[in-house]
Write a structure and sequence with these properties.
single chain, 357 residues, globular
């Protein structure tokens, strides 16, 4: 009890110091903060809202209309065998592939709140249904940053494969997976189409407001940090870790292609917070979630290396300057395969992990 009180007190002091430091930084670097928020607003209006809002509304609509449970019941066999989940997750996983990072989490939250799936299934799906959308990867990363849409398509394929591998591995080492298929607690009562449209629109708007708020917060923090660090290597590391749009811009101009792929697979801390927000009342182990994102980043990078060697051949990859397809993992398929094996070995450390919080 004594140590718990000490830890609680220390945690309170730490939080107070963080708030005081943030207030001081906002005062000293108000102009940098303003520029960061301005960039965040442009990002929200120009990229996030147009690309995410329709898919978030669509995922909510599919759940509220009862489509997930009725029309996708035949997918029960596939999703249970691969991921230990009911067929209701099939359209949500698909939408996470084509919609973007928080879309899967939003759909999972809708499934849970509607009573279509159990909380155990929702927590399990939230650990791996995380993927960047094709619009962002092919149009922005591939065409805009590298001048080659095929580069974006390769990263997209690599990420989709890494998500599937991760989902299968999580199910493989889940000791409680027999409990996930219970339908006893489920009470899915679909609403009328008109009500579903209104409710899904409201749900998507609320979700977008939370996402954009987090983007503005991280953009402000990035503006302040940049005023201190400048264009240094430490600033590049912050961009790669913090926010995926900044990450791909930095990595495309300064680092090998595999670093861009890792940044996409990892998603960035801002995206992680967006997912936590989109999940709502579904509480997951954040440390394990973060570990999975790192592992997904490595898997995406390794698969991007293999696919680029197979399909891009000797073609150079271009961004703002000339950047050759990277030698981050060595120049042979054998070395890339060895890294893939090493990444998969990490999964064996999860054999005794209990997915309950």
């Amino acid at each position: 009890m004594y140590y718990k009180n000490v830890l609680d007190k220390g945690g309170g002091i730490f939080k107070a110091l963080i708030i005081i430091s943030a207030a001081a930084a906002l005062t000293v670097s108000s102009q940098s903060c303003k520029e960061g928020v301005t960039n965040g607003i442009e990002l929200c209006l120009g990229v996030l809202i147009p690309s995410l809002f329709p898919f978030m509304a669509l995922s909510a609509l599919a759940v509220k209309c009862g489509v997930c449970r009725r029309r996708f019941k035949p997918f029960d066999f596939i999703t249970k065998k691969l991921f230990g989940l009911s067929g209701a997750f099939a359209p949500i996983i698909l939408l996470s592939f084509i919609g973007g990072y928080p879309v899967g989490a939003k759909g999972i939250a809708e499934l849970r709140s509607s009573g279509a799936v159990s909380e155990k299934q929702a927590k399990k799906a939230a650990m791996f249904a995380v993927c960047a959308g094709p619009g962002f990867l092919i149009n922005y990363v591939g065409s805009s940053l590298y001048g080659n849409a095929a580069v974006g398509a390769i990263i997209l394929c690599a990420q989709v494969i890494s998500v599937i591998i991760l989902g299968i591995a999580i199910n493989l080492f889940d000791r409680d997976k027999e409990d996930y298929n219970s339908e006893i607690e489920l009470k899915n009562e679909p609403v009328s189409l008109s009500s579903a449209i209104v409710e899904s629109t409201y749900s998507a708007l609320r979700g977008m407001a939370q996402i954009c708020g987090l983007v503005l917060l991280f953009s402000a923090a990035t503006g302040i940090i940049k005023s201190v660090l400048g264009d240094s290597e430490a600033m590049n590391i912050w961009n790669i870790c913090a926010e995926v749009c900044s990450a791909v811009n930095v990595s495309a101009s300064k680092y090998p292609l595999e670093i861009t792929a890792f940044a996409v697979g990892f998603g960035g801390i801002c995206v992680h917070f967006q997912i936590f927000s989109a999940l709502g009342n579904i509480k997951i182990n954040k440390a394990i979630f973060f570990f999975y994102r790192i592992l997904q980043g490595f898997l995406t990078a390794v698969l991007t290396k293999l696919l680029s060697m197979a399909f891009l051949k000797e073609t150079a990859v271009f961004s703002s300057g000339e950047i050759s397809a990277a030698e981050l993992f060595g120049g042979s398929i054998l070395s890339a395969a060895a890294l893939t094996g090493a990444a998969i070995c990490f999964l064996f450390t999860l054999k005794n992990y209990n997915f309950r919080r």
